[in-house]
Each structure stands twice: as C-alpha cells, then as structure tokens.
Amino acid sequence: MKKYFILILTLCVVFAINNINAQNITTIKAATPFPKGHIITDAMENFKSIIEAETKGRIRIELQIAQDTEEGVNDKCAKGEVDMQFTGGRALEVFAPQYFFINAPFVLKDYEHFFRLMKGPIGEKAKAEILTKGKMYTLGYLYRGYRQMTSNKPILGLKDLEGLKLRLPVVPTWIKVWEALGTKPVPVPLTGLYQALKEGTAEASEGDLTQISGYKLYEVQKYLIITNHLVSFGWVHMYKPTFDRLTPSDQQLFRETVEKVCDQATKKLLENENNILKSLIENGMTVIYLDSKTMQQIREKAKPAVEELFKTTWPVTTWEEVLKQ
User: Fold this and answer.
1) How far apart, in Å, do the first and last CA atoms of the chain sit?
2) What's the CA gap between 95 and 93, in Å, rounded?
3) Which of 290, 305, 308 is nearest to 158 (CA)?
4) From the candidate CATH numbers 2.60.120.1060, 3.40.50.300, 3.30.540.10, 3.40.190.170, the one assigned to the domain spanning 2-324
5) Which residues pair with 226 in a beta bridge?
6) Distance CA 94, CA 297 (A)
7) Is the separation of the CB atoms in 202 and 186 below 8 Å?
8) Max CA distance (Å), the chain
C-alpha cells in the first residue's frame, strides 16, 4: 500500500512539474508564403533553431510555410493571428505606401543602395509608418536577389514586351510601370504563379532567382532574361503586442537573432547566386543577357511612369533625392 501511495505521489509530482513547464512555454507563430528551399524560408527555419536552442525550448517557434499568400500572411500578422512574418514587401505597400518606391521596379541602384536607405531617415520613417498603422515592428531584412524575367519566347528588347501577358503580384504600382513598358499585366498571387504559367493565363513572369528556382518555373518557362529591374528583399516583421509581451532580454535576443539570420542569408545568397543560375540552366532554361543599351531603352521607357508615381503615390520624397542616398 505504501509503495502504491508513493507511486501515485510521484506521478502527481511529475504531472504538476510538466504542467508548470507547459505553462512557462511561449509559442510564437511565424509564417511565410514562400516554399521550403527559398532563401527567406531558410532564414525563418534558422531563426527557429537559434531561438529554441538559446531559450532551451522555453520559447517555441511554430512555422507556417507556404500555407497562405503574401497578402494573407501580412494580414494575419497585422491582426496577431500569427506573431511574425518572413515575407516580401507587402507590409511596406499596405502600411507605408508612400514609401513603397523602396520596393518598386527601376527605382533603386543595387542592394547596397537599399541598405543605405533603410539605415537613413527614409528607412526609419517607413518603419515608423509600419509600426503605427500595421502594429508591427520591422526587425530586419535580407537580400534575396535582383528580379529577372522568365518567358516562353525570347525577350530581346522593347518590341518583345509589347502585348506580353506578364504575371505580376497584385501590386498596383508595379502594374503601372509594366503597363508603361507595353506589357499586359496578369495580377496573380504568388501561390498561383506556377499554375498561371502552366495553364497559359500568363506567358511570362518576373521574380528573383530564388523565386524562379523555388517554384520550379523552369518546368513551365523556357527563357530567363537578365534585367536586374528591381533589387528584391525579404522583410521580417513582428506583431507589436506579442513583441511587447516578451521580456527585455528576449526582445534583445529576437532582434539579434533576426539580424544574424538575415546577415547569414544575405551572405549565402550573394555567394550562391551563380549556383542558382547554373541550376536553372541545367534544368533547361536558356539565359538571355540584355546589353546596357537595351536596358537603358527599357529604363527610359519606364521613367515617366516612375516619376509620375513619385508625384501621386510617393510624394514624401523625389526620385532624385532617393538616388542621392
């Protein structure tokens, strides 16, 4: 009887300890619209590993990978349905639209230009807008490559863009610029990209190499056209009420870890871009490099649309001022 009592008592103690431990565990939901293998998803998975190791499991990161569109993920994060998003520039577009030139075609020079902007007054104001209107802290950003074009016909110059059914994300400012270049934009969320190209709803697309590779567009597109028309970045945002509930030390850990995984991802992509390009070629894509003269013609054709957007949609600064940064 005594042994039976001790066994029951031991089980009760174990149950109580496990219950206390369960109550002390904080679960953070992190979401991305991108599939496994994408550089942004890699960063999110790396973030999970570091946080759980550093906190010895006290904080668990629950990942939602490619379960929703970029629009849906951003909406959920702004509502607190997920706590973090590792995604593209959707939060900037929705909550700081007057600063969306940071993520628009033909505006920035290169990825270093982006980082300079984000560390300066323009970037700080953009992040403040996202925090105020979207209730999200911007914890970091990572380089995900220049955006290129894919197509099932050769694109050699402006005349080949005329009437081209180009899949674009559902981004009005991008659509305006590409319409100015003569294309017929087909707005499709990222999750529908592959199917739109497969079915012929769109005959071309644009995106960074990680997107082109991650979504296996080489299965439905023959040509890869190097245009470098937009320097693309991943953003990490966190729902303000969730972040504010963390202890100061955990807040610091989250900030430092995001910075670390973003730096690692940026370095990894810079080192591996040629390998991704090589892989796309090995999978059957033909690469077309547009010469500087052709690209200058394309940029000149897009210029009036970009300048008009700075007047009507991005009036917080001028293109000239942005280029000085």
Assistant:
1) 80
2) 6
3) 290
4) 3.40.190.170
5) 289
6) 31
7) yes
8) 92
C-alpha span between 57 and 34 (Å, rounded): 25
Q: Are 250 and 312 in contact (CB under 8 A)?
A: no
Its pTM stands at 0.86
β-pair type (84-87, 26-32): parallel
| Domain regions of the chain by residue span | 2-324
Listed residue (27, 26, 92, 96) closest to 64, CA to CA: 27
Strand partners, 167: 186, 205
Which residue is it, tokens 């998975």? 45
Decide: 35 and 214 in contact? Cβ < 8 Å. yes
Q: Name the nearest CA neighbour of 191 among 209, 173, 166, 215.
A: 215
- The mean pLDDT of 157-163, rounded to a whole number, is 97
Torsion of CA 9, 13, 14, 15, to 10 degrees: 100
Name the amino acid, one letter, at 65: I
Residue 11, burial from CB neighbour count under 10 angstroms (0-12, 13-18, 19+): exposed
- Beta carbons within 10 angstroms of residue 131's beta carbon: 16
What are the tens digits of pLDDT across the range 36-75? 988 999 999 999 999 999 999 999 999 999 999 999 999 9
Calpha distance 318→325 (Å, rounded): 11
d(C-alpha 179, C-alpha 296), whole Å: 17
| Strands annotated E in 66-203 | 84-87, 136-151, 165-168, 184-187
Task: Work out the average pLDDT over 266-278.
Answer: 94
